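User: Predict the structure for this protein chain, please.
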Amino acid sequence: YKSEEIFLDMFEDEYREMVKRPINVEFVMSDASLLLPPTGTPLSGIEFRKRLPCGEVERARAAIRTFFMLRDLSNTLQGRDETILPLSSPDSCVRTGAVLDLNNSDLLAVTVELKDGTRQRRFLVVDTYQMILIEPDQHRLGWGVAKYSGFLQDLEVTSDKEDSRRLYITVHKPSSGSAKGTPIPLLSATFTFDDHIRCMAAKQRLTKA
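Assistant: Here is the predicted structure, written as C-alpha cells:
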C-alpha cells in the first residue's frame, strides 16, 4: 500500500467500524442488491461491504477487514480474547492538561517556537505512541502538566541543515480511510535543543514510529 502515512489511521478506523457495526449475516443476505451482478463502483449507491472494492484505498480497506475477520475467527476457535487491538486506546493516551509524574522520566529540555513567533520552554517526552510537551508544575516538584500531545504516526520531522540543534516538527491531523489531499497540520513548530546530541536523540525517538 503506497499511502503509508494514512495506513495506521485507516487500520484503526476500520477496526472501530467493525466493532461498532459487526456484520449481521441474516440482515446482509436480505438485501436485494446482492441479487445484482457484482459492482465495484461507489456510484452505484451500494454500501462498501456489499460490493467489490474500487481503487487502491478501498482495496486496502477490504484487505484490512478480511484480516480482522480471520483474526476474530482464529481467536474464537482457540477460545482467546482480543488483547492487542485496537493498537491505540484513547483511555491509555495522555491528554492535554493531564498532570504527570516526571520522576524517573527521560526528559529533553526544548524551546518550542510556533509559527506566530511565540517561544515556549518545555520538556519533551516520547512514549510508545505519543510525543508529549510538558510544562513543569510550579507547585509540585517532580510533576508536570501536559501542554500538547500528538501521535508519533502523525509526525513529520525535518532537521535544520544550518543548525544541528534544531528540528522542524509538524503534527498532521489523522486522516480517515477515505480522506484525500494534503494533510491538515495541527502543530507546526521549530524545536531547539540545548545541543546537537540531545537534538539527535530526540529525532531518533520521534521517528521510531
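The chain has a mean pLDDT of 85.
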